[in-house]
Design goal:
Elements: H1 36-73, H2 88-118, H3 122-152
Helix pairs in contact: 1-2, 1-3, 2-3
Length: about 160
Amino acid sequence: MSSPDAPGGPIFTAPHAAPPAGALLTAPPVVRRRRPMGAVALTLSILAGVVASGVAGLAAFGIARGAGTEFVARGGQAVDWRLLSPVRGLVLVAEIALWSGTVLGVVALTLGIVATVRNSGRASGIAAIVISALGPFLFAGLVLLAVAAGAGATTGSGTPI
C-alpha cells in the first residue's frame, strides 16, 4: 500500500506528533531530588556524639560530686556500689545517655555509610560517619573530665547537683 506522502513505500505512523516547524526544543527542567538520608544521619550522629556526651558529662559531674565525698572518706580503696545510692537518679541518666548514644551512633554510622554509597546526601553522610566514629572518644573524654571536676568540687555536703 502506498500513500501520497510516501510514494512506493510503507506507511508508518509516528508514536507522537511532530513539533511545529520552528519550535525551540529544550531539555526538560532539572528537578533536584531531595536527599534526606545524609541529613538524617548527620542529625542522629550529632545527637549521639554531642548531646548524649554532654548529658552524660553533666550526670557524671553530679555523680562524682555526690558520691565522691564518701569514696574519699573510705580511702578510695574499696568500691562499694552502695556509694551510688544517693545519686541513683543521676546514675540512671548517665546510663540512659550511654545506651541511647550507642544506639543512635550505630544507626547514624550505618545511615551515613548508606547515604555516602548511594550518593543520597554524600557530604552529610561523610560528616555523620566522622562524628559517629569520634563520638565514643568524645563521650569518654567528657565523662572523665566531668568525674575529675566533680571529685575536685566535693564540698563535703554529699548532695548531688
